[in-house]
UniProtKB/TrEMBL annotation:
InterPro entries from the UniProt entry: CYTH-like_dom_sf, CYTH_domain, YgiF
Domain of life: Bacteria
CDD domains to which the protein is assigned, alphabetical: CYTH-like_Pase_CHAD
Alphabetized Pfam families for the sequence: CYTH
Domain CYTH: residue ranges: 2-201
Name of the featured protein: Inorganic triphosphatase
PANTHER family assigned: INORGANIC TRIPHOSPHATASE
Record PROSITE patterns: CYTH
Lineage, opening ranks: Bacteria, Pseudomonadati, Pseudomonadota, Gammaproteobacteria, Pasteurellales
Amino acid sequence: MSNEVELKLAVEPNFINFLHQKITGFRLLGNEKQFLGNCYYDTPEHLLAKQKMGLRVRQQNGQYTLTLKTDGEVKGGLHIRPEYNVTLPNAEPDLALLVKKCGVDVENLAQFKLQPIFSTDFERQSWLIECGTHTVIEIAFDLGQIKANDKQVPISEVEFELKSGNISDLLDFVAGLELEGNVRLSGASKAKRGYALVYAQQPVEVTHWLEKWREFLQVEQSTHNPIDKLSALFQLEQALIDETFAIESSYFNVDFLRTVERIGVFFNLYHYYIDQTALLETIFNQRQSKCLSEVNANVLVELLESNNELFVQIREIIRFHSETKNNQIALEKLKQVLQTGQYVKRMINLISLTLEH
């Protein structure tokens, strides 16, 4: 078993041109282009998904690998997940071999009756680069499709995987890329998006964010650890962003109040961040004094500035929506705010403050 540590960004297909420009400044250890075919399996009852696991068979260069990804930690677009891998002689998933070779301790795993659930097929261009002493990062740009039954959605994302070094090195590297527009951190793995496509024919289940907010306030009141408070707030924010992009825009466009509520949740979020300046200052000072992590000295200033700027931007969107009653354009304006390089850097700064070492 090994821990996979990667930062995932949802990007436009032309993002690869940006990558070509940026990696020229680093020592290139290797690069390749290949097609990856992946079939995900589960039981008819989706028992693995219910345990937050993903099981796939990957075909790569004529070889087959069975991978089980278990429940891990996702902070925004930073994914830290234990995974088990075993080489297969063919495309059939062999759970008994996985248990034997890797010692997976999932109860009765070898007895699961599996069936194909969805596939993720994509072309991957990857670069292995050295970006500091003992720091090696693999950059993988994936372009393809997720398919389930007769439905499909595009894959256009880039993963920055830490091969050696510290997580702070990975965060600093991505934060320093000076990212441009139409880019955002993604907390949704390909497997999660695949299952969402499987369930796509079911009625839309939109989170009741007022209830989620109340749950967060209970966490805030019950813990005295500032990092736990900020982590809960940050996780709420990333979940809200992922859902906003996952749901079809038409769901909001046809209903004025739905759009009001969605924009209003972000308004309350940024207003709360501004009110919690002291919380951010406390965590930053703790990091600096106790050396819990290598937090850049500009992180706090950048966070405070971005929180204020976001509050102003969201307030302007509310004014526009109130005057025009145009749900579609108001939601587009909101999404534009959420997928900028500046927003990505803000989220990376939040990750750096909430990482436990």
